[in-house]
């Protein structure tokens, strides 16, 4: 293995520290690195997404030969990976766009790796990738996904689901803190207890640790952190792609917008002085009972979030002809990555039982889980509204559930409105699907209708 960096001193420091005593060698230029690699050369790029990836590839290509492999392991946007595969294959080179998740812990002990791109490259990196990846039992959290940008697309949706998970946990924290007046230690203990059951996950675990962490003066660090969340774009990409595909991935969208709202810190402070809510009248529900309601609501909303994410993956797989294995995706997320949880084992089982499953909500396990949580979920959303505690992710999950289980929605009125003002036509319940009609609603309109029916 050969390590390189545009700042040569970092390579020297790495060899003298983390790589000391290993067989890793260093290089101080692209040419030197390529000369030291065995053929076919396999070069992994880990740089900021966008132009830096293209610039690095441009510097590499002159020193590579036909059959060599370039792997982009950053958070690239999937259309860029699709483009790069085509451009490099035209030059005789192979390309892999690989999503990697796990942060610092994953870097040390094995991440989740989500590769896609040139299929011919996979046999040359499979053993390496699966050896260094995290494991779910004995199974590596890494498998081939498909061509083009499939690897980075799956990572993108992973990150979108991560946005949703984090937002829902924050909403549970908000209720505990403001509606139940719980201390940081009480909340930490609650999350620790939840981490032993259905909600067992990396994010629940670290939430408890964060809530307990103290400064040198004994104050809690989390209380010193400004309530202004950052984002790098993958959640936004997930929401935009969902809109492009016509998939109602509402929870991830709300999680993205919640971060945007948090960024309006100064505006929110000013608004808090003039916009009045109901006041934080404490809930009349018993504290222990309401905590259990929150736990169930969090679990139910989490199910909806993952169901939406896999609906988006299914539609993208069809649209881009990737042939994704959804059970394999769930397995890749069971270890090493940020959204890893025992919950993903049930998702893998659902798709193994029915690879054509349209939506996870229709699987027997998840259907039963939502039925069990439903009343508690509704109590939490209702109490949040009554108390003035915003629950954008948990409430939109409930709205999706109610919408998805509604056989006849009010969209008949909406489509009538569209036909009224724009002659957009409509289908009828008493006629076969695919036949379109236009009504002269006022008696003064013409007979001309829109030539395109837009769903």
Largest sheet features: 4 strands, mixed
| Structural class assignment | alpha/beta
User: How do the strands of the widest beta sheet line up side by side?
Assistant: 3-4-5-6
Low-confidence stretches: none
**Beta-strand proportion:** 5-15%
Kindly, what is the distance between the CA atoms of the first and last residues, rounded to a whole number of angstroms?
A: 53 Å
Could you report the average pLDDT, rounded to the nearest whole number? 93
Radius of gyration: 25 Å
The residue fraction in helices comes out at 40-55%
* SSE topology string: EHEHEHEHEHEHEEHHHHHHHHHHHH
Global shape: globular
Number of strands: 8
Put the structure in a nutshell:
The protein is an alpha/beta fold.
